[in-house]
Design goal:
CATH class: Alpha Beta
Protein name: Response regulator
Radius of gyration: 14 Å
Organism: Flavobacterium franklandianum
Keywords: Phosphoprotein
Largest sheet: 5 strands, parallel
Distance between the termini: 10 Å
Number of strands: 5
Strand order of the largest sheet: 2-1-3-4-5
Helix content: 40-55%
Shape: globular
CATH architecture: 3-Layer(aba) Sandwich
C-alpha cells in the first residue's frame, strides 16, 4: 500500500486532533501530519507553498465549524487558487454535523471527495489512503 508523505488536519477541536493523530500514527502510512486550527492559517500555508509540491499535503481533513475562517469559507477561497496548485490535494470534510444540508452542499463541491461524520477511525483512514 502507498504511503502518504503529508496529511493536514484543519480543525480547532484539540481532542479530535489528538485522537485523529493517534489513529493516523497507528496506520504507519503517513509520514507527516500538519495541523491548522482554522481555515485561514491553512489557506495562507497553501498559498505560500503553491509552487512547492513537496510542502503541500496530499490529503486534507477539513472541519466545517471553526473560528476565524470556517470550512465553507476555506473551500470558497481554496477553489479560487486550486488550479494553480502544483499538486492535487484530496479533501475530506470531517465534521460532527449531521445536517442533510451540509452533506448535500459538500457533495456539490468538486474539490470535496467525501463527507465523514466524526470520529474518524483507523480503518476509515486506511480506506482513504487506499483510494489515492
Amino acid at each position: 500500500m502507498n504511503t502518504i508523505r503529508t496529511l493536514s488536519i484543519i480543525d480547532d477541536d484539540e481532542i479530535f486532533v489528538f485522537l485523529t493523530k493517534k489513529a493516523i500514527q497507528q496506520t504507519n502510512l503517513i509520514n507527516l501530519i500538519k495541523v491548522f486550527g482554522n481555515g485561514l492559517d491553512a489557506i495562507n500555508f497553501l498559498k505560500e507553498n503553491i509552487d512547492n509540491p513537496a510542502s503541500l499535503p496530499e490529503i486534507i481533513l477539513l472541519d466545517l465549524s471553526m473560528p476565524i475562517m470556517d470550512g465553507w469559507e476555506f473551500l470558497e477561497e481554496y477553489l479560487l487558487f486550486m488550479p494553480k496548485l502544483s499538486r492535487k490535494i484530496t479533501i475530506y470534510i470531517v465534521t460532527s454535523s449531521i445536517s442533510p444540508f451540509d452533506i448535500v452542499k459538500a457533495k456539490s463541491i468538486s474539490a470535496v471527495t467525501d463527507f465523514i461524520i466524526k470520529p474518524i477511525t483507523k480503518e476509515k483512514l486506511i480506506d482513504i489512503i487506499k483510494t489515492l
